[in-house]
């Protein structure tokens, strides 16, 4: 599918194009447990047809297909879809395409469940993203949307940004944003405004371990879209200087195989009759 993107959408998609390869190679360390948890909110069978919006490299799509579902996966980034198609080569029940989650190319009332794992949270028009997800679900179908909790609540993010600050003193831990989906009240209100019923917002925390400081740094930075943009902007020589300083910092502050925690909010709602 060819998508004509506005300048705004082009700026949105660029970070994900840059990070797609690293996301596919290292993102599963953190994201796969969240994908598995998202699927626990629905009953999947061979009769199920689901939509995975902002599907990225397809962790949730593939996990759903392995449970028997037929999956329509869509993402704005061609590079992400390329990675998804390669990873899903053995799963013929997955159909992947490039497209905008704010204007889904599916008919009304089509899907038995809908998901967006850390994708819809970045949409320029989140209300439209929620409304589109609601539109394509059958009456009574379940939607599951995941968004990150505040970075300050994540020991993984604190470790990463401590290392970033050692390499670049201007780097700071992202501050809480009460207007984003990290605010449960905003999350709840936006889902309800889109038409979802029985909305609830739940937390889920995952622990990850790394064998050493280098693995922690490489895994987290290669799967971070914002940091992929930084790397592209500062150039490889400067990025390698920062990486060396960051790894030296983590070698002192991170004990190998120590669990680090990161938390997501899950918004669960039901499509109306």
TrEMBL record:
<dbReference type="GO" id="GO:0032259">
    <property type="term" value="P:methylation"/>
</dbReference>
<feature type="domain" description="Methyltransferase type 11">
    <location>
        <begin position="51"/>
        <end position="144"/>
    </location>
</feature>
<dbReference type="Pfam" id="PF08241">
    <property type="entry name" value="Methyltransf_11"/>
</dbReference>
<dbReference type="InterPro" id="IPR029063">
    <property type="entry name" value="SAM-dependent_MTases_sf"/>
</dbReference>
<dbReference type="InterPro" id="IPR013216">
    <property type="entry name" value="Methyltransf_11"/>
</dbReference>
<dbReference type="GO" id="GO:0008757">
    <property type="term" value="F:S-adenosylmethionine-dependent methyltransferase activity"/>
</dbReference>
<keyword id="KW-0808">Transferase</keyword>
<keyword id="KW-0489">Methyltransferase</keyword>
<keyword id="KW-0830">Ubiquinone</keyword>
<protein>
    <submittedName>
        <fullName>Ubiquinone/menaquinone biosynthesis C-methylase UbiE</fullName>
    </submittedName>
</protein>
């Amino acid at each position: 599918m060819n998508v004509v993107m506005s300048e705004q959408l082009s700026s949105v998609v660029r970070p994900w194009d840059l990070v797609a390869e690293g996301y596919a190679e290292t993102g599963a360390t953190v994201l796969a447990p969240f994908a598995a948890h998202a699927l626990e909110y629905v009953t999947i069978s061979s009769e199920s047809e689901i939509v995975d919006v902002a599907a990225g490299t397809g962790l949730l799509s593939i996990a759903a297909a392995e449970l028997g579902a037929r999956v329509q996966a869509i993402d704005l980034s061609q590079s992400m879809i390329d990675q998804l198609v390669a990873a899903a080569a053995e799963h013929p029940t997955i159909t992947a395409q490039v497209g905008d989650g704010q204007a889904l190319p599916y008919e009304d009332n089509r899907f038995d469940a809908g998901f967006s794992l850390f994708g819809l949270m970045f949409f320029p028009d989140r209300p439209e993203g929620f409304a589109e997800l609601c539109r394509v679900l059958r009456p009574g179908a379940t939607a599951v949307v995941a968004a990150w909790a505040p970075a300050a609540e994540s020991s993984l993010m604190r470790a990463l940004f401590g290392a970033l600050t050692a390499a670049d003193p201007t780097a700071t831990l992202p501050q809480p944003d009460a207007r984003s989906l990290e605010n449960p009240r905003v999350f709840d209100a936006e889902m309800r405004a889109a038409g979802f019923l029985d909305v609830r917002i739940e937390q889920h925390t995952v622990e990850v371990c790394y064998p050493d400081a280098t693995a922690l740094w490489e895994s987290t930075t290669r799967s971070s879209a914002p940091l992929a943009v930084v790397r592209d902007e500062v150039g490889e020589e400067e990025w390698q200087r920062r990486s060396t300083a960051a790894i030296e910092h983590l070698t002192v502050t991170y004990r190998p195989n120590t669990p680090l925690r990161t938390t997501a909010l899950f918004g669960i709602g039901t499509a109306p009759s």
